């Protein structure tokens, strides 16, 4: 019998209990992330229903209809209702949106919500309206019926204008869909600044001390220099423009970064003559006029014309970690690109470097914003005195470098929640309302290309940090809840409508799937899903290779999990034949030419030291967490793929080789290259079972 134990993909919880004693009839402050800055509770609940309409102010249809339509789609994904968008007068049960003329207390992103017989969201801008809808969506997600919103009044204004996330897509490619998902995730948590680092390179130490073999990539389509575009993953101009347009609808600014004059191996690989012979080929030669010609052309390609590729108001020009001896030339270079980008009507951001690169050559500061990441490179007080606005991006607090052994693999969230606010930059603390401290940003740097880290692994690190830092960047020092309470309640809020990048499911118990293909009940349920010569009978699910498969209700399951299946492979299976598959990964009966059980994801291929014997029923159990993947055969641990390290000759360095697996469940078999054989029983658990439990399966 099939048992599908997914009761709700959303959270099965009731609204949280307020920490402070209030009259029983007054609604306590709802828990959302970031925390509401002002709440006045009243009595009862607004109830979303079939007759609920989203009503946009009649005179403001042009501005509000896109937001109302977005909210309608998100409500349909979060609840069972599909509200109609209407320009009529609101009535009981409706949600009404209105732009204000100029409420100086709300600023550009603040909003108010009045929750009574109908709900009214007001803000000065559409971005403020979007943030109001995110608050309502989070409240509905936590309600057991996804229909009740406690009555009361909300006034919510961010303390900081910039609430950001920096993603290094230069040293690790992220599919466009991942970026789109992150726009929606960030919007759900009112994070408004998505900084995408578009080019970079690895360290030559990990590539044989040879610049020619060191990994480097530039992620945008280039018509000016077609050879510049990375061959292992890039974004077309059309895709990147569409990403920015979608982000604006969600209230998120895309900040594209072209990083020069260090981190520039992608450019010097195409034009070796502009690489520094003194400091290394990841440094541009700042004495060579050709350098300016090439980099000018790169920036111009994405900035010029009536419909530029970089369509937002801000562009990041990099400028970090260049050789200190060339301070004057570096300062000249920096000033040149500030003025070049500004000449196209854009605002400029850069990395802090001007304490490290002290000198007499002037560098424009007016209207320029600096990511203050390390005080030794750019002393914050000194930069403020020079006129720069700052985004607090302190490496010692906010840098994730996956599996590198330095900075953070996972941020210290408890410490951040308790102690950090954006006005803290390294060891310097400013007035929380300092006009030149614009906000904060945390970053993921993929310093080690080829180390096995996947987009799923990056997300596993970034998502919990997003929850904590969204709160700290909006609410500042407001931590009324203790961290453990915050963490417990944050776990009840997901990634946003239709998002589940973590691959987690809210269950009554740990068993997610229970298929016994030898039983009539399972056969009746899934027979219609069997494709292309696959069959189900008393022997189980039988796959005939090629395109035979069955589709499950889930695309995959994230960490932590246990997957158990009983398999009998036919003789004659060839290399690469697949047992489980999805867009993220495949589990292979025989990994390449090894003949061993293995898996592949994002261009990485792994195998266990085990060969599935044909013609024999075998119990296989695979468990996975964020550290690695383990194999059990007939109840016995065969191998744990975890902690692998690549060492290098002649240098005292090591590089991790991460062997994780976000387990693919979309297909048993595959649309191409399915294995030949049978599976009798499949069980998927939303946790790692103990060795004793595995033995008992």
TrEMBL record:
Matching Pfam families: Glyco_hydro_20, Glyco_hydro_20b, Laminin_G_3
Record has Signal as a keyword: yes
Coiled coil: none
Signal peptide residue numbers: 1-21
Calcium as UniProt keyword: no
Domain Beta-hexosaminidase bacterial type N-terminal: 30-156
InterPro entries xrefs: Beta_hexosaminidase_sua/sub (IPR025705), ConA-like_dom_sf (IPR013320), GH (IPR017853), GH20_Enzymes (IPR052764), Glyco_hydro_20_cat (IPR015883), Hex-like_dom2 (IPR029018), HEX_bac_N (IPR015882)
Record keywords: Glycosidase, Hydrolase, Signal
Domain Glycoside hydrolase family 20 catalytic intervals: 160-476
Similarity annotation: Belongs to the glycosyl hydrolase 20 family.
Protein known as: Family 20 glycosylhydrolase
Organism of this sequence: Terrimonas rubra
